[in-house]
Amino acid sequence: VHVAFARRNKVPFVYDVYVDAVTGRVLHKLPRVYTGTPTSMGSTDLYGRAVTLQVTQYSDGVLLQDTATFPSGEILTVDGSNNNNGYVVASTSTPIPDRTGVSVHDNVKRIHDNFASSFGWSNWDFATRPAGSGGNLLGVGHQGTQLNNAFFTTFTNNGQVWGSLNFGDGDGTVFINTARCFDIAAHELGHGVVAGTAGLVYQIQSGALNEHFADVFGWLMDQEDDLIGEDCVGPQLQ
Length: 238
Prior knowledge:
The protein is α+β, with helices and mostly antiparallel strands. The chain has helices spanning 99-119, 182-195, 204-221; strands at residues 2-7, 10-19, 26-31, 37-44, 50-58, 61-63, 65-66, 73-79, 85-86, 88-89, 123-124, 134-143, 150-157, 160-168. The chain has 3 helices and 14 strands. A hairpin with a 2-residue loop joins strand 13 and strand 14 (160-168). Helix 1 packs across helix 2 (182-195) and helix 2 (182-195) crosses helix 3. The termini are far apart.
C-alpha cells in the first residue's frame, strides 16, 4: 500500500507499506522521501588542484549538489555526456572522479560567492525580474559533442525556474575543455545577472551590451589579464 500525507512543519509522510494479506500485520515500511545532509568533501579539478566541494549526503551516496549555499534552492552539477545525470559517489572519502564536474561545481560556487561578497548580489530566482533571492543553479559539464562554446540559459522544472551554465569540451583544436576557464564561468553567470535585471534582448545593440556586461563580470572575477577564455584556447587559436 502506498501511503502519503502532508504534515505541518515536517517533511511529508510517504511510504510503501508491506502488509501481510492474511493477518493485516505491517511487515515493512519503505520510505519514499529522501532527505539529505549538506556536507563537504575533497576532489581534484582540471588543473590537478585539490578543492573542497559543497555536496549533499544521502543514505545511499553523496551527490554533487550544494544545498547549503542558498537559503532555499541548490547548486547542482550534472554530466551532459551521461543524460544529465548527477555525479554520485559512495561516500565523502571517495573523490568525484570526473574532474570536469569538479571544476564546474567549484567554479559556480566560487563565482556565486564573489557576486555575493563583491556586489551583494544573491538573486538567482529567475521566476521574476528583477530576480528574487535564492534560486537554483545547474552546472552542466561535457555539454554537446566537442562543443567549442559555453552558454547560459534558463529552464523550468516542476514549476521552478533554474539558471543553467553549460560547458562544452571543445574539439581539442580551436578550444579545449571550457570548464577549465574560471572567467568563462563568471562570464556565463554574468549573463544570469543581466537576465535577472535589465533582461537585455539578445539582438543588435542590446545583444552586444548583453555580451559586454557578461565580459566585464568575467574580467572582474579573473583579472590576471584582459582576455576572456585564454586558458581554454586550443593549439589552432594559440
